[in-house]
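Dear H.,

Thanks for agreeing to be a second pair of eyes. The structure we're designing against is below in token form, covering all 270 positions.
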């Protein structure tokens, strides 16, 4: 707990020094009103991800879906005025039991563990991709430390966004001249998580997102162990108008290679 408080202080200090702190919004009870206000406005960007039902997780499946649903409801309807900043930490906080979160799957030290709030990375990921398509300014974003699921990953390399309280946040700025509205929902019947970002702002141009694998990362072979490859991946966003083509997001990220030990069952992390 002591280190957690220090991490929060450190994160707030970074935001203060970068001139962000006083622009960061907090959850607001007017979100339902703002959702109604945004209906019919221009869609600047959207993203949809279907939750993979993983049989090997057993009853944890329902827990992670509950976490995703709660995470969506905490964010849905948020409005950002021009220059205001969205910080995922202000909405999800430490994803504790007292706030209604349950034990779900989470990656810690290259291993799958069960921890309170597990599964929320899907919320941060779908929100990041909608913001990317909407050409919002991405101030902070982190990929997962490893490509844990390999070919069964729920989204392409470079497009995932993880969340760890006080350590890894998702921060977005409204760089437009009009407010933007975040609509984030889970359809439990179809298991679709959808994020739409709307505004009275007219889209500024054509947005193109591209990812490129720069390098494949390997470890020395060890007998009897299954290697999961690592990657260096570059993600870019270009916005093209009739006058100019401009890169508005460019980030290189690393996924560490590791060995999978299938004899180790997921543990519960308090």
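And this is the sequence the design step returned. I haven't edited it by hand at all.
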């Amino acid at each position: 707990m002591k280190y957690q408080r220090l991490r929060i202080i450190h994160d707030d200090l970074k935001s203060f020094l970068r001139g962000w702190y006083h622009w960061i919004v907090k959850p607001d009870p007017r979100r339902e009103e703002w959702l109604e206000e945004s209906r019919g406005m221009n869609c600047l960007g959207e993203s949809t991800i279907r939750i993979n039902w993983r049989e090997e997780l057993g009853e944890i499946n329902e827990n992670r879906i509950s976490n995703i649903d709660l995470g969506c409801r905490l964010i849905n309807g948020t409005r950002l005025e021009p220059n205001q900043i969205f910080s995922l930490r202000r909405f999800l906080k430490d994803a504790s039991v007292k706030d209604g979160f349950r034990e779900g799957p989470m990656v810690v030290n290259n291993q799958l563990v069960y921890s309170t709030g597990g599964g929320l990375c899907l919320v941060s990921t779908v929100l990041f991709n909608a913001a990317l398509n909407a050409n919002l300014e991405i101030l902070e974003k982190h990929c997962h430390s490893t490509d844990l699921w390999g070919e069964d990953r729920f989204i392409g390399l470079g497009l995932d966004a993880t969340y760890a309280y006080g350590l890894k946040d998702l921060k977005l700025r409204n760089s437009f001249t009009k407010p933007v509205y975040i609509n984030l929902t889970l359809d439990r019947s179809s298991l679709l998580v959808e994020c739409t970002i709307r505004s009275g702002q007219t889209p500024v141009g054509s947005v193109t997102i591209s990812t490129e694998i720069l390098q494949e990362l390997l470890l020395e072979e060890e007998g009897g162990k299954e290697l999961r490859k690592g990657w260096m991946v570059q993600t870019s966003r270009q916005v093209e108008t009739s006058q100019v083509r401009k890169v508005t997001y460019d980030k290189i990220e690393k996924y560490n290679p590791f060995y999978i030990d299938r004899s180790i069952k997921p543990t519960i992390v308090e």
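Two observations from my side: The mean pLDDT is 89. Residues 230 and 257 are 4 Å apart (CA to CA).

Warmly,
E.
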